[in-house]
Amino acid sequence: MDQKISQKVVERLTLYHSILIEYLEEGIEAISSPQIAARLKIDDSQVRKDFKLLNNAGKCRVGYLVKDLKESIENTLGFSAPKDAFIIGAGNVGLALAKYDNFTNYGLNVLALFDNDPIKVGMEFDNKQIFHISKLPNLAERLNVDIVILTVPRQQAQKVADFAVESGIKYIWNFSPVILRVPSGVNVWNENLIASFLQFAYKNIIGS
Amino acid sequence: MDQKISQKVVERLTLYHSILIEYLEEGIEAISSPQIAARLKIDDSQVRKDFKLLNNAGKCRVGYLVKDLKESIENTLGFSAPKDAFIIGAGNVGLALAKYDNFTNYGLNVLALFDNDPIKVGMEFDNKQIFHISKLPNLAERLNVDIVILTVPRQQAQKVADFAVESGIKYIWNFSPVILRVPSGVNVWNENLIASFLQFAYKNIIGS
DNA sequence: AAAATATTGTGATTATTATCACTATTATTA
DNA sequence: TAATAATAGTGATAATAATCACAATATTTT
Q1: What domain count does chain B have?
Q2: CB-based contact A195 B81, cutoff 8 Å
Q3: Is residue A205 part of a domain?
Q4: B38 and B64 share a domain?
């Protein structure tokens, strides 16, 4: 599949999706590009061009069918292709994500958690067992998991990431505020909450 | 202050900052643009142009001073201008963020949490009290707080946001997967974790 | 001291992204 | 039925962002 859709567009697709859920719940069948654009404070032609990429045609004077559009976005973003993952780090963030069971509806199944704290190991959270980190290589191979959500403290992040890579992990969703060094072939996505707040603060509070 | 620095640059500044912390901890005094660029897999001239915006000069054949650069970024991003905030929603995500005490080092002080669950109200978490949501207007005014971190379930997000706005809140860091409707003058920053994962998955797993 | 090398700083170029302006179409209203 | 209005679709244009290329400079090596 050719990556014809840019990251910018993918980001907007997720925003459109949130709005479509709302419309669906309200029982509204059609939505127009100016309506969406107004909600997101963007240009309406942008919205139409994005939908064009999904091969989702609208109807003049009516708009787009909410149901079809939602399904188009879900197909494009891979909701229906379930991906199994582990969480490494059973701290507050790790546990919060483990209970975020909505993930499953979006194609992400968290199968288990890992930690090195003997008190946590053996416990269960939201039907997910917490294993000792040493069990990672074995379970990753047996369950064929190559995605981890990394929520360990900053100081341990690189070391744990190295271990995950040795265990065959190919995709790391990294919540530690660290730029991980990984070999080529391994993909990292950074979710730095503090950094995100700083961007918000700069845009709205400081830099204006 | 004129907003001379674009969001894209601000985003990179937060990434540079993570790397600078690492260098500082290792006791390395200088860092070069190619070093940073290699870590982030971006162009080195990009790094230099970003630093130029901070008025932070480098030295040929040596690079930039880690300490100075880090301070420049922190000044620009407002680390030293403390901002008080409330968390609304004492669920898993809310509690995880409340314990994320690193926030304080980055200029964000969480003063208290709010919830509508009578069991949670009155409890304390990481020295932060959980108040009933009805106390929000009063406390926001008394403590002069106009920033909230919204971590309530999707179904209640808009209603709670409306209430927060009525209470004088001007900045909402929104963790609910909902596009909030707010009056002009109120700023929303969306942190949709599921959407973020979908972007990651599309980029690396699906769309390639 | 001279040559080689690594690095900054930056103008020029290219690529990407967003906006504008307009036509075609379809539903609604007079 | 004709006029009006709202909307999709889209090429052209503008704005923004990233990359390239290279001169200037400082350090290191020979």
Answers
A1: 2
A2: no
A3: no
A4: yes
Tokens of B129: 């009290």
Res A2 pLDDT > 80: no
Span B4-36, pLDDT tens digits: 899 999 999 999 999 999 999 999 999 999 999
pLDDT score of A3? 59
Distance A62 CA to C24 C1' (A): 15
pLDDT value at position B122? 98
For residue B201, the chain A residues in CB contact (below 8 A) are 77-78, 83, 107-108
In a domain, B1, yes or no: no
Neighbours of B196 (CB within 10 A): 18
Q: Locate the chain A residue with the closest alpha carbon to B98.
A: A92
Report chain B residues whose CB lies below 8 A from the CB of A92: 92, 95-96, 99-100
- Please tell me the distance from the alpha carbon of residue A122 to that of residue A77, in angstroms, as a whole number: 35
Cα(B115)–Cα(B170) distance, rounded to whole angstroms?
19
Report, as an integer, the average pLDDT of B101-114: 94
Q: How much is the average pLDDT of B192-198?
A: 96
Q: Which helix (H) or strand (E) holds A108?
A: strand A108-115
**A72 part of a folded domain:** yes
Task: Please check whether residues A91 and A191 belong to one and the same domain.
Answer: yes
Regarding whether B71 and B124 lie in a shared domain, the answer is: no
Write out residues 181-200 of A within 8 Å (CB-CB) of B.
181, 187, 189-200
